[in-house]
Sequence to fold (226 residues):
Amino acid sequence: DAAIRLRAVTKIYDSGVPALGPIDLAVGRGEFVSLLGPSGCGKSTALRLIAGLAAESSGSIEVAGQATPPRGGHAIGFVFQEPTLMPWASISANVALPLELARTPKAETAQRVAAALARVELQDFADAYPRQLSGGMKMRVSLARALVTDPDILLMDEPFAALDEITRFRLNDDLLALWRDLGKTVLFVTHSVFESVYLSQRVVVMSPRPGRIAAEFSIEAPEPRG
Ligand code: ADP
Ligand code: ADP
Fold:
């Protein structure tokens, strides 16, 4: 069964803008799927609905077999386009935030934060502050924060769009390695054809007004998965 399933989902914002749908989409457990399309086609809206950050106007959404909000919680890690780090808090405190909100015991928090920072190779920056880090490093902090609760599903909204190309290529490789290691379900929003083809097993192409699925194709894995 699917990790994420949308059935005839629409979203009309209060302003009357028909942003989405109806769309049907199923993402399998452990699958890496890209949502590709031009600005304004509803990619972010789709992710926010799946994360439970906004409510669908009609249709139904299931995440990990659960239909009713509040979804998310520990099932989902969300990486936004901007790293959205707290500037006054250390890197480790930023990564610890989701655990603190969940009242995780201190010892477990420390251990999970250390593991998440090591996972993105920022273990030496635990006590640094966001302003001391480059854009790519901040994005890795944001990824560590999304992973620290060990969610099954990672939702990523154009995470690398603001970065230079070299940093972006490196982060693409880091993300792929991580996905292969951890076996997470990833839904990755991008308007880069290159990125979608490079990263994912399946590309879902969206078109605007309102956002719909216009096409979909699978990409053969370059090496056997396991
Ligand atoms: P992106 O295309 O990268 O998702 P947008 O520029 O569409 O970014 O949106 C940035 C933010 O502004 C989002 O939080 C979105 O919800 C909000 N937003 C976008 N369009 C509108 C709109 N027409 N009215 C109100 N808020 C909007
Ligand atoms: P994308 O992520 O593909 O750029 P969005 O999901 O951000 O697309 O936006 C889809 C449509 O919904 C756009 O027309 C956008 O202006 C509109 N929109 C997005 N967020 C809001 C919002 N919070 N309020 C009103 N309209 C919005």
Q: What stands out?
A: The chain has six helices and nine strands.
